[in-house]
Amino acid sequence: MRRITKKMNVYQNYFLTQEKKIAVLIDPDKHTPESATEIAKKIESSSAAMIFVGGSMVSESISPVITAIKQNTQKPVVIFPGGVTQLSNNADALLLLSLVSGRNPDFLIGNQVQAAFAIKKSGIEYIPTAYILIDGGKCTSVQYVSNTMPIPADKPDLAAATALAAYMMGMKAVYLEAGSGALTPVPQNVISAVKKAVEIPIVVGGGLRNAKAIKNAFEAGADIVVVGTAIENGIWPF
Ligand code: 1GP
């Protein structure tokens, strides 16, 4: 079924604009529509610009959670999919991720092939995004589930080359991911090396658990930072 909601042009209006932005990440697996309603109200009155919805372990439809969020916020809701089942017509956009730091064909192109016609049919805005895992000091869910190795945190050149290749192949954003609950967020020199290499928005997430970490990521060149665990634990806004 085609979407009937008005298009928000998320890429144009939220990724390409100059201001730095915070996106909060909601894991639908951890929420009922009722708890999603509560958290959406909190987000609506916060400084967050966007809401990302996704997780590594979703088994049920994410639509009820997204619907509950949409009913309680004007902010764009963007699917950050952990798998092919994470698609909903009620979201405003979808990060069409390719896990370019890994060498697992399922996450590079296989899942995208499976979902391609469904995405096209839904009419949802999709943002081709180079998803790059950076070692965050422990094995995170995304690393384990994707069965890929992250780029070592002390190899900014490798991260930059990976981002550059993806940019040259037409990706519209780079997502530097240390993984949810990472012990160490993506280092500043990795962010700045990637920033120098590409001319597309840079999203940074994983292990950002205080205002200083967010400030550091912005100063290094992040355009959008993503906060997940901190909001689920009730410690965000910082
Ligand atoms: C989004 O995986 C992150 O990129 C979320 O990480 O849960 O550590 O904030 P946290």
Secondary-structure element order, N to C: HEHEHEEHEHHEHEHEH
How much of the sequence is in beta strands?
Answer: 15-25%
Low-confidence stretches: none
The whole-number mean of residue pLDDT values reads 94
Give the number of DSSP strands. Answer: 8
**Spatial shape:** globular
Strand order of the largest sheet: 1-2-3-4-5-6-7-8
Report the sheet with the most strands, covering strand number, pairing sense and barrel closure: 8 strands, parallel, barrel
Amino-to-carboxy terminus distance: 40 Å
Question: Can you characterise this structure?
Answer:
Helix 2 (33-44) packs parallel to helix 3, helix 6 runs parallel beside helix 7 and helix 7 runs parallel beside helix 8 (211-220). The chain has 238 residues and is an alpha/beta fold. Strand 4, helix 4 and strand 5 (125-133) form a beta-alpha-beta unit. The mean pLDDT is 94. An 8-stranded parallel barrel has the order 1-2-3-4-5-6-7-8, surrounded by 5 helices. The chain is built from 9 helices and 8 strands. The structure holds SN-glycerol-1-phosphate. SN-glycerol-1-phosphate (1GP) binds next to strand 8 and helix 9.
Can you give me a brief rundown of this structure?
This protein is α/β, with parallel strands linked by helices. It is 37% helix and 18% strand.
Write the layout of secondary structure elements.
Elements: H1 10-15, E1 21-26, H2 33-44, E2 50-53, H3 63-70, E3 77-79, E4 93-99, H4 105-122, E5 125-133, H5 141-146, H6 156-168, E6 173-177, H7 188-197, E7 202-205, H8 211-220, E8 224-227, H9 229-232
Parallel strand pairs: 1-2, 1-8, 2-3, 3-4, 4-5, 5-6, 6-7, 7-8
The structure holds SN-glycerol-1-phosphate.
